[in-house]
Hints:
Flavoprotein-like_sf; Putative NADPH-quinone reductase (Modulator of drug activity B); NAD(P)H dehydrogenase (quinone) activity; NAD(P)H_dehydrogenase_qn; five-stranded parallel sheet
Amino acid sequence: xxxxxxxxxxxxxxxxxxxxxxxxxxxxxxxxxxxxxxxxxxxxxxxxxxxxxxxxxxxxxxxxxxxxxxxxxxxxxxxxxxxxxxxxxxxxxxxxxxxxxxxxxxxxxxxxxxxxxxxxxxxxxxxxxxxxxxxxxxxxxxxxxxxxxxxxxxxxxxxxxxxxxxxxxxxxxxxxxxxxxxxxxxxxxxxxxxxxxxxxxxxxxxxxxxxxxxxx
Length: 216
Ligand SMILES: Cc1cc2nc3c(=O)[nH]c(=O)nc-3n(C[C@H](O)[C@H](O)[C@H](O)COP(=O)(O)O)c2cc1C
């Protein structure tokens, strides 16, 4: 029996980001669980998130041949059993790099617009990193918003009902709060052992989300 494949999509503009690190942690955990890994680092692969004429849907032709680059991404999606986008939460949503990948690749006639969805049967865990703490007054609202847009608006809409959104809170080395007047303040930066423990716990939470979602 061939190993199932996990497509881990890293959406960050810096190679040394915490997001890229969590992408590596997720890939390692999936590999340990027996998955073959396809690590798609959108920055490293030079993916341009801007929509192009070639990849714009033609509502009269769901069989439109999109650009070779986008077709290559579609093939990687089709080959995956599990899809795990790893991204920083920007404005309660995904960063432009990931949004553009969805816009261009999860396209009409491929992601949606067919009676039998091409992506049916796949599973998807959206793994977002957020600066806000889980006790922050925005946290529940952010989770709800991400859930609506990503799990329902994208995964479910594209034939993947088995999906979830997990948020790793406190993804900064120092706590952040916004008071009633809108003033932003940062706590003392973590250093030394406390910093190492903070990031180790974050790695562990990322692994835990994968384990819980996939039953590892
Ligand atoms: C443009 C921008 C928008 C952001 N929006 C949010 C937000 O809506 N909610 C939140 O909790 N954090 C927000 N953050 C904080 C990021 O989620 C956080 O810095 C990131 O997850 C840290 O990971 P990184 O070091 O890999 O970038 C935002 C950061 C930026 C730069």
